């Protein structure tokens, strides 16, 4: 008489399961940094695009106020910019861009520089009446634009840590120092619009 053959239970061995977990771990190790880099680039693009839109709105307001002559930023304010570009939030230059949702790339700090000159690209530039627009992206990068009455525009970006720019205006101060060529080593170029 035949003895019944013991039935082997179907399933995976521990080694097979560990190999699958290892492969999934390797794939995650490759995918997560790529995803985070793409998210940071997208956050930076929001801030740059917001600054570009704010600068266009400021130019329209200044041109309307001067009748198309030489630009004067006297009529450009947070109120006039908000009316011209309602999709963005405009705050005064002293507002903390690191707090209360202001680092979303859609909040623009607006200010002017009265008189003076700075050295930019080894050349002295007079900044009398320059309009200064600053935005901070969610990836902790400050972007700034100086728009001079003669139509010249200088742009920069500076990476700041999450704890940096917690004092009102320091994001703006770091970006302006970068524009003036006096900032530290974490200055990077900003692609042309």
* Total of domains: 1
The percentage helix is 25-40%
User: Which descriptor suits the 3D outline?
Assistant: rod-shaped
What would the average pLDDT be, to the nearest integer?
A: 74
Describe the structure.
This protein has 193 residues and is α+β, with helices and mostly antiparallel strands. The protein has one domain. The chain is built from 3 helices and 8 strands, in the order ααβββββββαβ. The termini are far apart.
Question: Which secondary structure elements does this structure contain, and how are they paired or packed?
Answer:
Layout: H1 14-66, H2 78-84, E1 89-92, E2 107-113, E3 117-120, E4 123-126, E5 130-136, E6 141-147, E7 153-159, H3 170-179, E8 187-188
Parallel strand pairs: 1-2
Antiparallel strand pairs: 2-5, 3-4, 5-6, 6-7, 7-8
């Amino acid at each position: 008489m035949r003895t019944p053959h013991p039935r082997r239970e179907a399933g995976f061995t521990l080694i097979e399961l560990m190999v699958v977990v290892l492969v999934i771990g390797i794939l995650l190790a490759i995918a997560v940094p790529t995803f985070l880099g793409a998210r940071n680039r997208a956050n930076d693009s929001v801030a740059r695009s917001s600054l570009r839109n704010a600068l266009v709105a400021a130019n329209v307001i200044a041109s309307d106020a001067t009748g198309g002559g030489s630009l004067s930023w006297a009529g450009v304010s947070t109120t006039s910019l908000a009316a011209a570009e309602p999709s963005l939030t405009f705050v005064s230059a002293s507002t903390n861009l690191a707090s209360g949702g202001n680092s979303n790339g859609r909040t623009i700090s607006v200010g002017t520089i009265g008189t003076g000159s700075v050295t930019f690209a080894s050349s002295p530039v007079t900044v009398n009446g320059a309009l200064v627009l600053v935005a901070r992206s969610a990836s902790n990068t400050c972007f700034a634009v100086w728009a001079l009455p003669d139509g010249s525009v200088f742009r920069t970006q500076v990476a700041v840590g999450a704890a940096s720019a917690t004092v009102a205006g320091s994001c703006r101060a770091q970006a302006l120092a970068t524009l003036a060529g006096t900032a530290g080593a974490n200055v990077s170029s900003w692609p042309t619009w």
